[in-house]
Predict the 3D structure of the following.
Amino acid sequence: MSASGGTKAIVAALLANLSIAVAKFVAFLFSNSSSMLAESVHSLADSGNQALLLVGGKRAQREATPQHPFGYGRERYIYAFLVSIVLFSVGGMFAVYEGYEKIRHPHELTHWYWPVGVLVFAIIAESFSFRTAIKESNVVRGRKSWKEFVRHAKAPELPVVLLEDLGALVGLVLALGGVGLALLTGNAVWDGIGTLCIGVLLILIALVLAVETKSLLLGESAGAEEAGKIEAAVVDGDTVTGIIHMRTLHLGPEELLVAAKIAVSHDGTAAEIAAAIDAAEARIRDAVPIARVIYLEPDIYSETEAAKGPDREATPGGPAPHGSGH
């Protein structure tokens, strides 16, 4: 995923949310609408979230150190996870509380044209932000469905902005519906119900983001397509005859660790095997440029041992039994 594409979408969302937050808060002051207050806090929380994503992207660019030899790429995952926490607490829980209070103690709306006008303006502004996020995501999404893109994207920024913008648009429609029903019926409870629905929506989006970013924090392997390219690049059919087993791990959205036990011909010299490993590493980097850290360990593949069972870990090159060397 292009980091520049993610940054463009984040900046667009940040500018939109800052302007919308100010407009919503002014509308709340004039109208006393709880939906507008919830939406003001929502937009303010979204602005803070986008700032967190920008900070995470900047910190992730730091050079590796002896204490952190694989670099700081995962900082982007950490800050994306913080976004889900902020969205859940500051956005969702506040809106639920405000909606509950407004249902218990409804207040008549005043100057109705303020919230309606601001909500229409906010829908237009959020639509432009959402359009930018969709456009930037389509560059890297390929043939994946939107659900697959959100679930399997290794870079968290675009999925986060997409879900935030989608939640913002739906929330604005809910707020407009709550205010509209309150005006039509003369019952301000509808404004509270709209606020409550906004809170539930934000909590659901926050939970989805938390689950996906937690998986990234734990460490995800390369996608099936990238893993296939790596496996094809390792084997040259001459010195390197196969892969005994392989592990991949994303050190960051654009940095992949590859570790593999590779089968080599038993009559190759040390120099030939070393040259074959160097060549395999070069082929991997050509096939998958984000494969930055590569460890290949040569071993002799035994068909007899492999025939003992389908578990590839039981073949030579797998984990050695406790108390024995390899």
